[in-house]
Amino acid sequence: MTHKSFFTYGAAEMAHLQQADPILAPIIVRMGVIKREVIPDLFTALVHSIVSQQISTVAARTVWHRVQKSVSSVSPEQILAVNPAQLRSCGLSGRKVDYIITAAQRVSSGELYIAALPSLSDAEIIAALTTLPGVGEWTAQMLLIFSLQRPNVLSYGDLAIRTALQHLYAPEILDKKSFQGHWERYSPYASVASLYHWAVAGELKR
Question: Long-range contacts for 26-35 (Cβ within 8 Å, ≥24 apart)?
């Protein structure tokens, strides 16, 4: 059975956010600790993020399981060892296969020294990851949270987070300046605030 890892936080982060934001505070009390799975290996998480782009959660889960079965491990070496047709047979588009193979090539060659990324700042990691085809700022930010467990990420490019912010605070316009204000309020635990805003957005869809 595969061991699952979850984004780690606790009472200190929750208390900080409750004190910083009286609107979010009762939501934190009601929801308690939110368990969100993370993929600690950054390359595996990168491939997973490409697999999951622009398809439903259910479809992404199915395709991801097929990819995992098609290779002995989701590593650059194993990705490059399989025939691209084998990856396409998992349900991946040709473009996604190209993105994944390019990422594997750059990591394998050392062009992208992925082992060094955890020692860099958030901005430096985003800059490095977005040199890869198929990886934009939002994808890089999600990797910061759901692989590297960086504590202070709130993504302006995330529609669900913006939906939750507009629902809770009812701004006429949620521009980047006002969004920055929310990030500053939650800092240094904006990633934890993100978990609650995603949960709020999920409730709004029900």
Answer: 27/196, 27/199, 27/200, 28/196, 31/196, 31/199, 33/9, 34/7, 34/195, 34/196, 34/199, 35/6, 35/7
